[in-house]
Amino acid sequence: MPTTRARPPAPPARKAATKPLKGEVAETLKWLERHGTKRNRDGLARYGIQAPRAFGVPMAKIQVLAKRLGRHHELAEALWETGWYEARLLTAFVAEPGRLTPSQMDRWCREFDNWAVCDTLCFHLFDRTPHAFRKVAQWSRRREEFVRRAAFALLASLALHDKRSTDEPFARCLPLIAAAAGDERNFVKKSVNWALRAVGGRSPRLRAAALTVARRLAASSDLTARWVGKDALRQLAKEG
Question: What are the angstrom distances between the C-alpha of 182 and each of 43, 108, 142, 191?
Fold first, then answer.
């Protein structure tokens, strides 16, 4: 999952496309192909990333390309539709958060097929939209593995990045964390744990509330919920 850091402001959208969209997509894919390596492609599996269509481009180079491209929503949509792993990662940095609709978020989320694309879009794009908290609630109740992971990756991203919201919307999400803590699927349980720790790190009040949830989960008879609770207790104790 992405590392914690302060979120920089989104770069402005480009005023106008400088070349036909189809050509820009083709050039972008060629750039990605030139900067990919077999070693990086083969290494994806070591991190639990299933990506049959991948060039093998490291994230640092994807972000370099993203800065060059700037925000361009139509290009982001077209890149997503290519299905290439790196093109979908690039979407997180190129899409315009203010133009992202709830239905588009739902559509992209349904197509998540690995944790890296899921977390990157949540961490760099979805948490910038006004729809974020609503999607946390909606996706947390879904059964698809990466849709449910997205709910809690998005909640963790909001906890780390959202400087405007009060404690209230985060406190309302704690029951969602408790309800999903028994999901034994690895990519889900890790995101639930991440969200609990991130919410607890926002303020003293939320830390106390998160510790209450973590203690209850740690005492659960459910093995997965118990792991989520005990690990969160360890991490929150370190931060306290």
Answer: 30, 26, 14, 12
Does 7 reside within a domain?
A: no
DSSP label at 3?
Answer: P
Domain that holds residue 51: 12-99
Closest to 117 (Cα-Cα) out of 69, 68, 53: 53
pTM: 0.91
Q: What is the DSSP letter of 202?
A: S
Q: Rounded to whole angstroms, what are the CA distances from 220 to 55, 140, 143, 216?
A: 43, 20, 22, 7
pLDDT for res 39: 96
Under DSSP, the state recorded for 9 is P
- Number of domains into which the chain is organized: 2
> Is 14 a residue whose pLDDT tops 90?
no
Residue 8 pLDDT more than 50? Answer: no
For the chain, how big is the Rg over CA atoms in Å? 18
CATH number of the domain residue 238 falls in: 1.25.40
Between the alpha carbon of residue 119 and those of residues 3, 34, 105, 148, the distances in Å are 11, 25, 13, 12
Here the tokens at position 173 are 């999400």
Q: Is pLDDT at 15 greater than 90 in this prediction?
A: no
